[in-house]
Amino acid sequence: MSGFALHLLRHGEPEGAGRLIGLTDALPTAAGIAACVDQARDLGPEVLIASDLSRARLAGEAIGLATGVPLSIDPRWRELDFGAWDGLAPGDVEGPALARFWDDPEVHAPPGGECWSELVRRVSGAIGDLAARPTLIVTHAGAMRAALAVLCGFDVRQTWAIDLPYNCLLSLRVWPGDGLGQRPTAQIAGLYP
C-alpha cells in the first residue's frame, strides 16, 4: 500500500490567545478561520474531521463550505486538558509547577488535568479509526504533537521541539497498521507555518 495523505491543521488564532486554552471553548477570530481556509485551499481532502471545540470546529465548517467536503466531528482530536490551569495565562500559574509540566507532562500533569499518555492514547484511537483516504483534520497543537508520537515514534521532548503556530499545517504520509498489532507509521511530508 502506498499510504495516504494526512494533513493536521492547527486551528487559527482564538479569542484570548496566549492562555493555556485546553478544553476552554474559546471562539476563533474571523482572521483565524480565514487563515485555516487559506491553508486548506489546495489540499484536496476526501475526508474532513475537526475537534468539537469551537476554535477547530468552526474552521472545519468553513473549510467544508469552501471545499464541498462534509465535516465529521471527533472529540478525540481535542487539546490537552489543562485542568485547573485551563484558561489561565502562563504567568498566573505557579512558575515551578508550570516548568515541571513543560519538562515532563506525563509525570507533572496540570492539577485535575490530563497527562501526556492520556492525550496520546485518545489520539492514537482516532488515528486507528481513519480510513486510508486523503484526510484533513482541524485540531490543536497538543493533539498534533500526540499524532507525531503515535505515527513517527517521537518522544515528548521531540514533539515539543516543533513549533506549531496557529493555522500551521503538518502534512504526513501515513501507512496504516495491519490490524494484527502493527501500528500505523508515517513520514513528515511538510510543515507550513
Automatic annotation (TrEMBL):
<dbReference type="Pfam" id="PF00300">
    <property type="entry name" value="His_Phos_1"/>
</dbReference>
<dbReference type="InterPro" id="IPR029033">
    <property type="entry name" value="His_PPase_superfam"/>
</dbReference>
<protein>
    <submittedName>
        <fullName>Histidine phosphatase family protein</fullName>
    </submittedName>
</protein>
<dbReference type="InterPro" id="IPR013078">
    <property type="entry name" value="His_Pase_superF_clade-1"/>
</dbReference>
